[in-house]
């Protein structure tokens, strides 16, 4: 069965444009579960074991709570998730297609460009698919509409939350849970061709149920949170001076309680009234007294875990902040993403878009035999055109022939078409020849005072 027949059998145009949502909306109470604070490593391990058994909902909730508590984690994740969506997308025909077929399939490229141009929330779709690095998978529902010129276009996405998916115990297949406690689920991609985009990634190389960075990042974020909590507690106690009160052996309980109240007053207000018979001493912890420049292992652990997050998500640490010894190249690297990681994300997302979005759209609107162009995200850094032009000028003096197409591709310049107006570089006459004014430009002009001199 051809792609067109298969697609039309699964969905009629009416179902595409007016059908009910594939995944119904859930009430707010069923969209997340509050994990809360006070967790211990043993309890976190229990949540991990639930995820290993195919039920990752609580792990996803814990991950989202950790992200909302940790500014560093939010920063590195958003940098990676947005990197591909910021790249311009184009469509190319594979090199193994002959010239006649390329000309024939130009319309399919233009049609795919139209889909992107008219898609309501295209950046959100790309960010959602790129975020599959977290849980190892991402799914979005695609909405369709009929245009005034008779086309059926996918025009909007509805991201589905990873917590609503589970892995079937029998074979580890990814399933969507229609409600809490659903142990059967549904394969959204198989049952809804053209209306679902689903991506499953290889991130850590484990089985699919344990794929993604979520486990690594949850542990790092929790240890950072625990370190910060202890650090704050230490700030409440450790950086306050120790108040030591001494009482006589024959002191009554009332005297002792009164002394404790005095010590509390000194710690909270810095002032207290005491009798002459009371012995009160104030000592600062070693290395923490004002002006001593004391340090804490909490900060070292806090920063070390942040660097581990940066390595896992972005591939390096200097993108976010300088290292302990400074960062010579930090200005250029900051707010960027390592090229190989960005290209890997772009290729994975583009492959799914071609198979699950553009292929059905081309088949329904054109022909089941129409070649589906390859979406390509421009992940290369922009060329400094002035430096590139200077380099080409120098190369032209020592290289016999330079491809004009290569030069245009490097600077993003389109091929000239017939009928275009051209800008021609000025050609200087050769030595000994005269210009249109009868002058030899290689010799000084006597009328020019500076040159004549």
Description:
This protein is mainly alpha-helical. Among the domains are: 3-216 and 336-377, no CATH class; 386-445, no CATH class. Helices cover 45% and strands 11% of the residues. It has helices spanning 3-10, 13-18, 41-52, 57-69, 71-83, 99-104, 106-118, 122-130, 132-135, 188-191, 214-237, 253-268, 297-314, 330-333, 339-365, 385-398, 404-411, 449-452, and strands spanning 89-92, 137-146, 152-160, 165-167, 174-176, 196-200, 242-246, 279-283, 374-377. The strands form four sheets. A three-stranded antiparallel β-sheet has the order 3-2-6. Strands 1-9 form a two-stranded antiparallel ribbon. The protein has a two-stranded antiparallel ribbon with strand order 4-5. A hairpin with a 6-residue loop joins strand 4 (165-167) and strand 5. Helix 4 crosses helix 11 (214-237) and helix 5 runs parallel beside helix 13.
Count of extended strands = 9
Radius of gyration: 33 Å
Largest sheet composition: 3 strands, antiparallel
> Which parts are unreliable, with pLDDT below 50 for 5 consecutive residues or more?
289-294, 448-453
Helix content: 40-55%
What is the molecular shape? elongated
Main β-sheet, spatial strand arrangement: 3-2-6
N-end to C-end Cα span: 86 Å
> What is the ordering of alpha helices and beta strands?
HHHHHEHHHHEEEEHEHEHEHHHEHHH
Pairing-aware structural class of the strands and helices?
Answer: mainly alpha
């Amino acid at each position: 069965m051809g792609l067109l027949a298969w697609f039309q059998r699964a969905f009629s145009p009416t179902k595409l444009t007016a059908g009910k949502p594939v995944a119904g909306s859930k009430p707010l109470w069923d969209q997340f579960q509050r994990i809360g604070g006070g967790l211990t490593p043993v309890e976190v391990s229990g949540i991990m074991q639930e995820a290993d058994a195919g039920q990752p909902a609580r792990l996803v909730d814990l991950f989202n709570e950790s992200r909302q508590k940790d500014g560093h984690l939010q920063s590195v994740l958003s940098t990676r998730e947005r990197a591909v969506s910021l790249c311009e997308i184009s469509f190319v025909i594979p090199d193994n297609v002959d010239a006649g077929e390329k000309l024939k399939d130009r319309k399919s490229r233009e049609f795919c460009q139209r889909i992107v141009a008219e898609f309501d929330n295209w950046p959100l779709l790309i960010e959602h698919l790129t975020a599959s690095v977290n849980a190892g998978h991402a799914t979005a529902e695609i909405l369709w509409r009929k245009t005034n010129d008779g086309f059926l276009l996918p025009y909007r996405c509805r991201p589905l939350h990873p917590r609503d998916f589970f892995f079937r115990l029998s074979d580890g297949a990814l399933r969507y849970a229609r409600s809490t406690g659903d142990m059967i689920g549904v394969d959204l991609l198989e049952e809804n061709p053209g209306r679902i985009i689903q991506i499953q990634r290889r991130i850590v190389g484990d089985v699919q149920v344990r794929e993604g960075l979520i486990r690594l990042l949850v542990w790092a974020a929790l240890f950072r949170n625990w370190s910060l909590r202890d650090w704050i507690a230490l700030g409440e106690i450790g950086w306050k001076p120790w108040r030591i009160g001494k009482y006589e052996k024959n002191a009554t309980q009332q005297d002792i309680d009164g002394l404790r109240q005095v010590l509390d007053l000194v710690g909270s207000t810095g002032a207290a009234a005491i009798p002459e018979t009371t012995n009160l001493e104030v000592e600062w912890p070693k290395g923490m007294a004002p002006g001593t420049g004391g340090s804490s292992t909490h900060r070292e652990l806090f920063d070390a875990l942040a660097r581990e997050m940066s390595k896992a998500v972005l591939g390096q640490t200097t993108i976010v902040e300088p290292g302990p010894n400074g960062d010579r190249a930090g200005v250029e690297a900051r707010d960027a993403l390592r090229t190989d990681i960005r290209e890997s994300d772009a290729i994975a997302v583009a492959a799914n878009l071609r198979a699950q979005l553009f292929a059905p759209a081309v088949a329904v609107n054109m022909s089941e035999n129409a070649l589906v162009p390859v979406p390509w995200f421009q992940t290369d850094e922009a060329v400094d055109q002035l430096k590139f032009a200077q380099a080409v000028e120098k190369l032209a003096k020592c290289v016999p022939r330079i491809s004009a197409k290569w030069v245009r591709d490097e600077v993003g310049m389109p091929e000239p078409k017939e009928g275009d107006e051209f800008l021609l570089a000025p050609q200087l006459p050769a030595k000994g020849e005269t210009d249109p004014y009868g002058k030899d430009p290689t010799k000084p002009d006597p009328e020019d005072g500076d040159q004549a001199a």
